[in-house]
Amino acid sequence: MGFLSRFTTLLLLLSLLSAATIFTSTEAYDPLDPTGNITVKWDIMSWTPDGYMAVVTLYNFQQYRHIQAPGWSLGWTWRKREVIWDVVGGQTTEQGDCSKFKGNIPHCCKKKPTVVDLLPGTPYNKQVANCCKGGVLSSWAQDPSAAAASFQLSVGQAGTTNKTVRLPVNFTLQAPGPGYTCGPAKVVKPSRFTTADKRRVTQALMTWNVTCTYSQFLAQKTPTCCVSLSSFYNNTIVPCPTCSCGCKSNTTLSGSCVDPEKPHLASVVPNPGKNGLAVPPAVQCTHHMCPIRVHWHVKLNYKQYWRVKITITNFNYAMNYSQWNLVAQHPNFDNLTQIFSFNAKSLNPYASINDTMIMWGVKFYNDLLMQAGPTGNVQSELLFQKETESFTFEKGWAFPRRIYFNGDNCVMPPPDAYPWLPNASSRHIMSPLLLVTAVALSALAFLLQ
């Protein structure tokens, strides 16, 4: 083999290894919630002289990703010259140009309308079922009864039969920022509705569905949380990886984060934001620069049980996290005996394997994760029963495999940095950087032969 061929092989090998260690999964598919999505159901309930009346419902079928204030907004593009005469349970953000209408003015004449939810306390004559929550939707696992939102549309200048109606296109969902990609509208079997006494069933005249899926990469280019680790059997505290969510040294603006010793200066330090407006920096200056840190501490070891403490810390001075949730994956969750000061529910993304748990705060107690500062954290403890066949403190077994906060995958420390038992003679897991270095040295030796 010639020198040039060896050099080309070396470059290819190193590029593949670097890609494997740098890039993470960014597609919409979530292995812990494989069927999670937001489905928009559009039911035509009656025909009108120039169009139809429809009920539009958003269902949040995501197990642990909720929508918090300021809530969702749903947009689409009309296929013809449709207008919205009226909206109940919601409103469009703009009216558009309705100058050609005399007398009865439509609610919205835009080709691309955007509808938002109404606020709590809306007059009853403007409400429909499942409306008026300010756009907030619970995740399906936390509260299915609060995971849907509806509004009613009166559409004019549209088709008046199943054959003449044109389905809207280019659906968009902001919740409240980007992250969701919506597919095309698909006509499905008309929805059926059962009366309260369950003695009569009615159905929609026509129904179509739109499925919107979430991508963390589309929502935010950088991670939003990180994980640190510690244990009773090792004095080492493994911090969040440096630059998990950003690096202070890479920022070109002074005052791009808040000095934890002087948080009162957060409101006066300039930080040009969108449209050139001055936006105060929000995240506390840390080596990881993440708004949220989750700390997993292996606390105690009993004869038949072992105990873990979880602390969630908010480093954002401008953000309260309402209805937050935490998802953890660990093989011992099947033997969780008790959890203190959090609600918890098992998730079964793989049916028979029970290794994933969703946790969230107790209502009116710690369901609101406050801004950075003395009260900017929530914590709980988990008590596990030992399973003799699998339990061990060796090789980082006691630590989680992955952590999600509010549906976003958190950055974990590298496996070779986990706290190890004092009598561990060696670490058998090689970090990605050491692996690349070792392969490079081996390849270099091969190249120089």
Structural write-up:
The protein has 449 residues and is mainly beta. The chain folds into two domains: 38-214, Immunoglobulin-like (Sandwich), CATH 2.60.40.290; 222-418, Immunoglobulin-like (Sandwich), CATH 2.60.40. It is built from three helices and 26 strands. It has helices at 3-22, 216-219, 432-447, and strands at 38-48, 51-60, 73-77, 83-88, 90-92, 114-117, 148-156, 169-174, 180-182, 186-188, 192-194, 201-203, 206-214, 225-231, 234-238, 292-301, 305-314, 321-322, 325-329, 336-340, 342-347, 356-361, 368-369, 377-385, 402-405, 408-409. The strands form six sheets. Strands 1, 2, 4, 7, 9, 10 and 13 form a seven-stranded antiparallel beta sheet that branches. The chain has a six-stranded mixed beta sheet with strand order 15-14-16-17-24-20, with no helix packed on it. Strand 21 (342-347) and strand 22 (356-361) form a beta hairpin. Helix 1 (3-22) packs antiparallel against helix 3 (432-447). The radius of gyration is 27 Å and the shape is elongated. It starts with a helix and ends with a helix. Keywords: Glycoprotein, GPI-anchor, Lipoprotein, Membrane, Signal, Transmembrane, Transmembrane helix. This is COBRA-like protein. It is found in: Cell membrane. It is a lipid-anchor; GPI-anchor. Residues 1-19 form the signal peptide.
